TrEMBL record:
Gene3D superfamilies: Acetylglutamate kinase-like. The keyword Transferase applies. It comes from the Bacteria. Belongs to the acetylglutamate kinase family. ArgB subfamily. This is Acetylglutamate kinase. Keywords: Amino-acid biosynthesis, Arginine biosynthesis, ATP-binding, Cytoplasm, Kinase, Nucleotide-binding, Transferase. The lineage of its organism: Bacteria, Bacillati, Bacillota, Negativicutes, Selenomonadales.
């Protein structure tokens, strides 16, 4: 892991090439498992603020899965995930909305603003940012695929790019909570990875960066020497089908695949536990984490 001074050195080396980054749209998916402590949170917030200062167009899509689970526990509700997605009944979707929109979104917006950014928080309901419909989980078992009903879990039908571009063009950083709205005004709990991918695709982002709690993708998750630094779209599809990518990594990799197919330049899964991981990914020639590319 690099310390802050080493990270600063990386940035200074990059200075002559700063104009290459000007005006580039980058979507950052900030996962709940990477929101470990206030020091790391500040490092993520500083990185995003710096991207803005050098003329990039950052957009944040956040998760908050562990926090939702902990609040559900307090209400005596158990959590079940199928293919990386939370089984969501009516009570669960309102708790998820309360945690994601009411707590985590406002926290991130507040932190960004305290660090000198102009951040605006949005859920899928603001200006109908995320129109959604019911999603069924795809379960791979013994080479067969089945579709399972997991309740109020949504998939994105459309993203209102107009509101995002209006905010970005006025100098704001949009911070998006992954709650979608259905055509009858109902709330849908959407995995934040999928929302990040859809936003990246809709805006034609240069990069999609997903912060999580592992170094990146492993060929075999039990074997930490099997780390992969670069993966093609086809290899990624194969790994999901073979079951070597599991749990919460499935929506991430599916998102990378979809974003690449939709025109996003590059996608990255990086370790949010590493201080200044966003800067290290964007401003070093080798980057960090696993990149999934066409
Ligand atoms: N092949 C794999 N490589 C890396 N991580 C994997 C793999 N298969 C499953 N995982 C799991 O995916 C997790 C990341 O997803 P998740 O916990 O949902 O993160 P986040 O909250 O950041 O979205 C890892 O902590 C790991 O347990
Ligand atoms: C349907 C579904 O699984 N929704 C997620 C939304 C939050 C999320 O994605 O948070 P992370 O990025 O921290 O995992 C959930 O309920 O946990």
């Amino acid at each position: 892991m690099k310390n802050s001074l080493e990270t600063a050195a990386v940035l200074i080396e990059t200075l002559p090439y700063m104009q290459d980054f000007y005006g580039k749209t980058v979507v950052i998916k900030y996962g709940g498992n990477a929101m470990i402590n206030s020091e790391l949170k500040n490092s993520v917030i500083q990185d995003i603020t710096l991207l803005k200062y050098v003329g990039m167009r950052p957009i944040v899509v956040h998760g908050g899965g562990p926090e939702i689970t902990s609040v559900l526990n307090k209400f005596g509700k158990k959590t079940e995930f199928i293919s990386g997605l939370r089984v969501t009944d009516e009570e669960t979707v309102s708790i998820a909305e309360m945690v994601l929109v009411g707590k985590i979104n406002t926290e991130i917006v507040n932190l960004l603003n305290r660090h000198g950014s102009k951040a605006v928080g949005l859920s899928g309901k603001d200006a109908n940012l995320i129109l959604a419909k019911k999603h069924f989980a795809e379960v791979h078992e013994n080479g067969r695929v089945s579709m399972v009903d997991i309740g109020f879990v949504g998939e994105v039908e459309s993203i209102n790019t107009n509101i995002l571009n209006t905010l970005i063009d006025s100098g704001y950083i949009p911070v998006i909570a992954p709650i979608g709205v259905g055509k009858n005004g109902e709330s849908y709990n959407i995995n934040a990875d999928y929302v990040a991918g859809e936003v990246a695709g809709a805006l034609g982002a240069e990069k999609l960066i997903m912060l999580t709690d592992v170094e990146g993708i492993y060929r075999d998750y039990q074997d930490k020497t099997s780390f992969i630094s670069s993966l093609s779209l086809e290899e990624a599809q194969q790994m999901i089908a073979q079951g070597s990518i599991g749990g919460g990594m499935i929506p991430k990799v599916e998102t990378c695949i979809k974003a690449l197919q939709g025109g996003t330049g590059k996608t990255h899964i990086i370790d949010g536990r590493q201080p200044h991981s966003i800067l290290l990914e964007i401003f070093t020639s080798q980057g960090i984490g696993t990149q999934v590319v066409k």
